[in-house]
Amino acid sequence: MTPPRRPKHQIIYETLAGEIGGGRLAPGQRLPTEVELVQQFQASRPTVTRAMQRLVADGFIERRTRAGTFVRQTAAPATKLLGLVIPGLGETEIFEPICSQIAAEAATLHYALVWGHASVPHATTTGNQPLALAESYVRQRVAGVFFAPVELTSDRASVNQQVTTMLQDAGIPVVLLDRDILPHPRRSRFDVVSIDHRRAAHMLVADLLERGERRVMFVARPLSAPTIGLRIAGYRDALREAGLDALSRWVQFGDPADPAFVRRLLREGGDAAYVCGNDVTAANLLHTLDELGVAVPGDARVAGFDDVRYSRLLRVPLTTIRQPCRALGTMAMQAMRERIEHPGLPARDILLDADLVRRRSTQLSGSKSAPRRAKPRPTAARSNRART
Questions:
Q1: What residue ranges of the chain are covered by domains with CATH 1.10.10.10?
Q2: Could you tell me whether strands 112-114 and 61-64 are parallel, antiparallel, or unpaired per DSSP bridges?
Q3: Are the CB atoms for 279 and 361 separated by under 8 Å?
Q4: At 320, is the secondary structure helix, strand, or coil?
Q5: What is the DSSP letter of 380?
Q6: What is the CATH number of domain 8-71?
Q7: Which has the higher per-residue pLDDT, 353 or 87?
Q8: Which of 380, 306, 321 is closest to 348 using CA atoms?
Q9: What class, spelled out in words, does domain 78-195 have in CATH?
Q10: How many Å separate Cα 194 from the centre of its chain?
């Protein structure tokens, strides 16, 4: 999956602003000419000019007649920059539109969003990348950082703690995207902007039960993010409300691409509905079930979370929970602005409602109803929790 596409003038602006903020371009240093920047960035002259004009307007550089363009002696403060630490950005689809919306909101407030690659000039391993980005943002003295905590690695807890501690010690506000750094029901000291994962899972499972499912199982990959714990809690809430025992064996962790794991799953669940931790897990499960000759939705039903683009393009279109990505980006930027202006605010959960999208993967045999989108819930709900 390709990273989100941004205007070339924005990339030029972010790169030069990041180099100034990080000290690689010192106050008073002369910048390359626009012709040289055209070659460096493989951009048109008007594109470079647009980026330079914004750098002048934001106070990073100044133009001197017949002398060239220079970093201002009192360059724009680092409060003009915000950073992203999103492991796997470009691979985790929901973060592309969220970050694009953050960038759009940031621009209206005269902030530049640094997407990361411009701050770390050399490629790093997946495990080291979040720490390298955090170190870079500390050097640049950015005004704040949006962080999607690391998941699916054995050292995720340590990396997440190191990243947030490093930024906190430098006095840089942190807003967490999609998930906390601590597993449910524990809570960190940082703002979290996400959907209400527990409510969304409850909505999905309750809908399956109301439409006649007799058994619903939950499937997730090991080492998943704390969001999975919230989704499992919502899953169990729905089962209890329906008068069903939330048996521990109905929650299974494993690799859905592994036929041996899926065979064990089928022995336990049979013709159940399988609610997966996300759409990637669901898509892999659908593929493995197909290899094993298990028909979906005839022999089993499958649902996911996130509504990534390919979920509707699978051989059997996937029932899923749709994340309101643009609204999440807007609320994340609002949370960051409030955190910068009022650093003493208590840690907050800023939770948005999500939509259930029904497709053929959960259609019971004999059902005549066409796939349809469930009615949306109210736009957003917010809960504040003071930390001591």
A1: 8-71
A2: unpaired
A3: no
A4: strand
A5: E
A6: 1.10.10.10
A7: 353
A8: 380
A9: alpha beta
A10: 9
Indicate where the chain has its CATH 3.40.50.2300 domain(s). Answer: 78-195, 197-323+355-384
Query: Which of 82-86, 114-118, 352-356 is predicted with the least confidence, judged by mean pLDDT?
Result: 114-118
* Topology (CATH level 3) of domain 197-323+355-384: Rossmann fold (3.40.50)
CA-based nearest residue to 18, from 126, 94, 114: 114
Spatial distance between the Cα atoms of 331 and 328, rounded to a whole number of angstroms: 5
Placement of tokens 């209206």 in the chain: 108
- 185 in helix, strand or coil? coil
Amino acid at 76: A
Give 313-362 pLDDT, tens digit per residue. 999 999 999 999 999 999 999 999 999 999 999 999 999 999 999 999 99
Amino acid at 366: G
297 to each of 313, 321, 366, how far by Cα in Å? 16, 18, 11
Instruction: Give the whole-angstrom CA distance, residue 16 versus residue 34.
Output: 13
pLDDT tens digits, 160-200: 999 999 999 999 999 999 999 999 889 999 999 999 999 99
In angstroms, the Cα distances linking 105 to 173, 191, 241, 378 are 17, 18, 40, 22
Query: Whose structure tokens read 């950082």?
Result: 145
